[in-house]
Amino acid sequence: MFPLIIGVINATPDSFSDGGRFARSSDAVAHGLRLLDEGADWLDVGGESTRPGASPVSAREELARVEPVIRELVRLRPGVVVSVDTSKASVAEAALAAGATVVNDMRAGADPDMFPVVSEWGASIVLTHMRGEPRTMQKNTRYRDLKAEVRDALIARRDAALVAGIPSHQILLDPGLGFGKAPKDNPTLIRGLRGFRTLGHKVIVGASRKRFVGELSGVSDPAARVHGSIGAALAAVVHGADGLRVHDVGATVAALRVFLACYGGPSKRQTTPASS
Ligand code: HH2
């Protein structure tokens, strides 16, 4: 199945892979339009970097970065699926009011107001596994049983989201590559994606430009990790990913078209997450 392609827009000054390139909202919007034209099904707009060691930003600052970008993208491309990459319920709520329909929450509802906001707005949510906080998450990357622990943590957050009234089909799961994981853990999680799918939700994955891709491919500049990122993306699709969060949309879509035609299997497109 052709996966959902989620194009990344980092409206931040400090993201690890493209920090500062789209800090001006007009640049972020132009980038988003380009990603749609290249084949993105959905755009993920973030205003706070979650790279290891990143410092938190205030809700006010985060919102000032993402809201105008979301509003303008929705105005220019009515019906576009936009997620807001945030862990703050207040930012999520304002982004939903601006036209986003999905919340991509790396902290999986740690803010006690997050699930109620998502439920009230009838939005979808991506629940990602992250151990600890971006500033410290790479300090303890030891797991007794990596796949089981990630799965159990996702089940716990999924159950909490269901209790808060978010419908099951509006919950997506993500094992959180690079978030509190040792380099060797990321390929293991990609190989284990089918195990997460058995939980009954779409599973998305973000390998794009990450450090483990750089280490495996020997490319230190994150922006030059496109080839390695595509390698991870193709493996993720083979192992059952429903969606790929990527920076290099055009290159990934082209690689997938060829790969899926040659590899075989259905090439039907995935459907984007619903909002009620
Ligand atoms: N990775 C990043 C940010 N958001 N969301 C999901 N669901 N899954 C991911 O793997 C994921 C994510 C980190 O990448 P990026 O946005 O490029 O960098 P930064 O956090 O420095 O802005």
3D architecture notes:
It is a single chain. The chain is α/β, with parallel strands linked by helices. It has ten helices and eight strands. Strands 1-2-3-4-5-6-7-8 form an eight-stranded parallel β-barrel, surrounded by six helices. Helix 2 packs parallel to helix 3 and helix 3 runs parallel beside helix 4. The longest helix is centred in the N-terminal third of the chain and has 18 residues. The radius of gyration is 17 Å and the shape is globular. The model has no long low-confidence stretch (mean pLDDT 93). The structure holds 6-hydroxymethylpterin-diphosphate. 6-hydroxymethylpterin-diphosphate binds next to strand 1 and strand 5.
Basic shape: globular
Which ligands appear in the coordinates?
Answer: 6-hydroxymethylpterin-diphosphate
Major sheet strand order: 1-2-3-4-5-6-7-8
The main β sheet shows up as:
8 strands, parallel, barrel
Order of helices and strands: EHEHEHEHEHEHHEHHEH
Estimated share of beta-strand residues: 5-15%
The span between the termini is 25 Å
Indicate the mean pLDDT: 93
Supply Rg: 17 Å
**Helix run count:** 10
Specify the structural class. alpha/beta
Secondary structure: number of strands: 8
User: Which regions contain 5 or more consecutive residues with pLDDT less than 50?
Assistant: none
Map the helices and strands:
Blueprint: E1 4-10, H1 25-37, E2 42-46, H2 59-76, E3 81-85, H3 89-97, E4 102-105, H4 114-120, E5 124-128, H5 146-163, E6 171-174, H6 185-191, H7 193-197, E7 202-205, H8 211-217, H9 226-238, E8 243-246, H10 249-263
Parallel strand pairs: 1-2, 1-8, 2-3, 3-4, 4-5, 5-6, 6-7, 7-8
Helix pairs in contact: 1-2, 2-3, 3-4, 8-9, 9-10
Bound molecules: 6-hydroxymethylpterin-diphosphate.
